[in-house]
């Protein structure tokens, strides 16, 4: 694979929001399989494109990359490719290699399960905030392009539980469940819990509906601790009533979660100005 093909695959992986990391040899000393600049793309399932040298050394890089994807943190790793050292792993090339492992992120994203009025409002606001937007709805007539942002990915050819189970989820991705009835919400949430979606997971509904869905899922074997991690009822408490207001409360909660912020009012932040009475 030449450089053009390699970077085309990197671009394609990011466009498809596939969880992956780029490993680059940044320094080397002595005899090594490949020198600085060698690159490899590693996916969350361990699949690769390109190479940094092969053998046990490369398998260690792949394992480190998969962990970095999961944790979301870049890593600079040093590998000794010779015997007789405490850090040796059996390689006999004789040199040393430094590899920078960089998880590739595609920004924040929201996947909305359901295509009703609230879904439309959430999609519009999320897109205006620069988020990638996807909508999963089994009723194709609900997903006309005139109803959703032009850049949104609209999915009608797979049921929500299968869609959730079949993709890799990132920590900066939100799953928003706003289906047309509780039964569909329950199926989607069960799929998310089984998949172990690591980012934001929220479900719309009254406290009574949420309690009923949680009780049913607990009876089916889902742990209360896992259920407690679901944002339900969804959104920040701003007294939202209309779809637009509901969208504000949900998107704000998603941003608070993905960015690790408190969500407190700016006036409450340390260093906020204090009135002097004049």
Structural features, described:
The chain has 278 residues and is α/β, with parallel strands linked by helices. The chain folds into two domains: 88 residues, no CATH class; 151 residues, NAD(P)-binding Rossmann-like Domain (Rossmann fold). It is 35% helix and 20% strand. It is built from eight helices and ten strands. The strands form two sheets. It has a five-stranded antiparallel beta sheet with strand order 3-2-1-5-4, sandwiched between helices. The longest helix has 17 residues. It is elongated. The mean pLDDT is 88.
Which range best describes the helical content: under 10%, 10-25%, 25-40%, 40-55%, 55-70% or over 70%? 25-40%
N-end to C-end Cα span: 70 Å
Spatial order of the strands forming the largest sheet: 3-2-1-5-4
What's the level 1 CATH class of the largest domain?
Alpha Beta
**CATH superfamily (homologous) name of the largest domain:** NAD(P)-binding Rossmann-like Domain
Largest sheet: 5 strands, antiparallel
The CATH architecture of the largest domain: 3-Layer(aba) Sandwich
Residue stretches low in confidence (pLDDT < 50, at least 5 long) are none
Order of helices and strands: HEEEHEEEHEEHEHEHHH
Q: Can I get a quick summary?
A:
By secondary structure, the protein is an alpha/beta fold. The chain has eight helices and ten strands.
Layout of SSEs?
Layout: H1 3-15, E1 20-29, E2 39-43, E3 48-50, H2 55-71, E4 75-80, E5 96-104, E6 109-113, H3 117-128, E7 132-136, E8 153-155, H4 160-165, E9 173-177, H5 182-195, E10 200-203, H6 207-219, H7 224-228, H8 243-259
Parallel strand pairs: 6-7, 6-9, 7-8, 9-10
Antiparallel strand pairs: 1-2, 1-5, 2-3, 4-5
């Amino acid at each position: 694979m030449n450089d053009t093909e390699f970077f085309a695959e990197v671009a394609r992986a990011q466009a498809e929001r596939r969880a992956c990391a780029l490993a680059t040899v940044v320094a080397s000393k002595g005899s090594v399989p490949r020198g600085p600049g060698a690159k490899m793309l590693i996916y969350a399932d361990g699949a690769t494109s390109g190479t940094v040298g092969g053998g046990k050394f490369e398998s260690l890089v792949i394992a480190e990359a998969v962990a970095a994807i999961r944790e979301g943190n870049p890593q600079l790793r040093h590998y000794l490719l010779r015997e007789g050292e405490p850090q040796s792993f059996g390689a006999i090339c004789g040199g040393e290699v430094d590899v920078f492992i960089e998880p590739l992120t595609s920004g924040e994203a929201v996947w909305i399960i359901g295509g009703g009025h609230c879904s439309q409002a959430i999609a519009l606001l999320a897109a205006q905030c620069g988020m990638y937007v996807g909508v999963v709805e089994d009723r194709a007539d609900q997903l006309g392009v005139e109803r959703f942002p032009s850049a949104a990915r609209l999915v009608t050819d797979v049921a929500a539980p299968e869609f959730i189970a079949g993709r890799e989820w990132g920590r900066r991705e939100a799953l928003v469940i706003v289906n047309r009835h509780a039964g569909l919400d329950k199926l989607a949430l069960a799929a998310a819990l089984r998949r172990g979606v690591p980012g934001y997971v929220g479900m719309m509904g009254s406290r009574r509906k949420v309690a009923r869905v949680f009780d049913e899922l607990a009876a089916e074997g889902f742990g209360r601790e896992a259920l407690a991690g679901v944002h339900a009822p969804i959104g920040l408490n701003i007294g939202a009533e209309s779809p637009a207001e509901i969208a504000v409360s949900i998107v704000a909660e998603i941003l608070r979660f993905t960015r690790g912020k408190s969500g407190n009012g700016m006036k409450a932040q340390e260093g906020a100005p204090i009135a002097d009475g004049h």
